[in-house]
Amino acid sequence: MLRLADFSLSHETAVTELLTQTYVGEGYSSPQIVSAFTPSALRNRGEVIVAESDGRVVGVVILVDGANPAAKLSAEGESEIHLLAVEKSSRGGGTGTALVAETIRRAQDRGDRRLHLYTQPSMSAAKAVYERAGFLREARRDFEMAGKPFEVYSLSLAPSVNRPAPTSSLPEAPTK
Q: 150 φ, ψ to 5°?
């Protein structure tokens, strides 16, 4: 059974290995990126969410606040999804979908208006997960980084039912 959890000390080694195996081992990034996978670098980036199955880490994603310097696309009141990774043997079983749904829920709960992400054109399975979740392609925002092209997707967020509605700071209109 799949369980989502916040990143903790017990996940550090497995998460670093999963990110390295996925991004470097599968050729999406150069080996120099590994420094971005240290536990402190991950925590500084944002909320690290881990997927576990039978006590093993099988997936990870990071929800990055738009005010965080690690955010590349977002402004305040928006967030980004970074470093979605699912262990090869767990792909196609809903792990990526569950992690993306959790980032959407958390972004809504904190009142974000939009959620952004960037991905490489060759990451078709991940792009399918994003599109099923409602993300729309924003080709005008595509960019290149370290010689690799990246495609941008965004999702407009509805206010969460778990978050209280904002109250107005305007004075009430006088009654007659």
A: -130, 140
